[in-house]
Amino acid sequence: MADNTEFAFTREQQELRAAVRGFCADHSDEATVRRLMESTPAFDQKAWLRLGSELGVLGLGVPEELDGSGGGIVDAAIAIEELGSALFCGPVFGTLMLSIPALAAAPDTPVRTEILGPLVAGVRTAAFAVPDRAGRFAADAVTLRANGSGDIWTVSGTVERVVDAGAADDLLVAANVPDGVALFVVDATGFGVERIALSTMDSTRPQATVHLAAAAARLLAGPDEAARICERALQVGAVLLAAEQVGGAQRMLDLSVSYAGERLQFGRAIGSFQAVKHRLADMLVDQEHARSAAYHGAWALQDGTDDPVVAASIAQAVCSAAYTRIAADAVQVHGGIGFTWEHRAHLYFKRAFTDAALLGSAEDHRDRIAELVLDTRNGDYEVAVATGRG
């Protein structure tokens, strides 16, 4: 970034993008994605280890004193954009987007140190089993209950539809305690933990229902800190999810432009027809708008240049809508072949609509932005950023 008023990628960030793109070319080609989405676990553990230990991607945005790679949220967004472009199969959402930011924001305790280090190194994975309502921490929706004190706790209850929970080593869970809601870490492989895999639209992003029956837990943060940590994790997660959506949308746009230049109809490339030109132009506008919104959000959360709630909601309102539109338009541009199982378009289509349902829909975030900019009790905001069509 150049300064406080102008955003530009540095040479180091461009090198990071190139490194992650090269990693994806080696570990996330279409054949690999199709193989992994049918596997258990649905990711390559050796590739995940390399992503953490060798490339340092899992530690981006985590201070070096916490065993991270340093950098900031913008760096993490760059890496995740490339992973999204390649439809990378792995616990990116549960571990990198949510659990690691939550741990980085947690108080400095031995529990945080013991859990965060292996996650950053790629040795272990995690899932964030904390309820949200449109991307905001929903304390009133917490149904788990914790019993204990000091270093000895157990957690019981059920959490539905947890992304990446099926193969996670650790679960970050919010649970009710006598004086509020606290945040705990549960060893997902331990006694009292049952995970039931769910059938979902997007096989590259598995989900599971988690049943806990007096499962041993370690206290990460008490009621005085838990809400702040969860809010921060969900804000960072929303912005990083937006970056992933930008990556997937860009790949669909690139494939559509390439196909329109090659596919002949009536002796002409279909890209020469006005209707196709207009569709591709609209896709480009959506994509550029989404990229700006995603990196505005990442920059705002990293440097404090904007209200984090507004920035995260703008990113999700724009990027969710853009990715679903571009994915649907890409299927149309590809015609009959775009509807087939053999073509990769349907994989991105399913990821787009799955992502749009995580951490709040575009409509949910537009409503939140409207409430924030119209409610003077929350401060004066200038409505200077469009939040997507419709």
From TrEMBL:
The keyword Nucleus is assigned to this record: no
GO molecular function annotations of the record: acyl-CoA dehydrogenase activity; flavin adenine dinucleotide binding
Database matches in InterPro entries: Acyl-CoA_Oxase/DH_mid-dom_sf (IPR046373), AcylCo_DH-like_C (IPR036250), AcylCo_DH/oxidase_C (IPR009075), AcylCoA_DH/ox_N (IPR013786), AcylCoA_DH/ox_N_sf (IPR037069), AcylCoA_DH/oxidase_NM_dom_sf (IPR009100)
EC number(s) on file: 1.3.1.108
Domain Acyl-CoA dehydrogenase/oxidase N-terminal: from-to ranges: 10-121
Keyword flag Transcription: no
Similarity comment: family membership: Belongs to the acyl-CoA dehydrogenase family.
Protein name: Caffeyl-CoA reductase-Etf complex subunit CarC
Organism: Nocardia cerradoensis
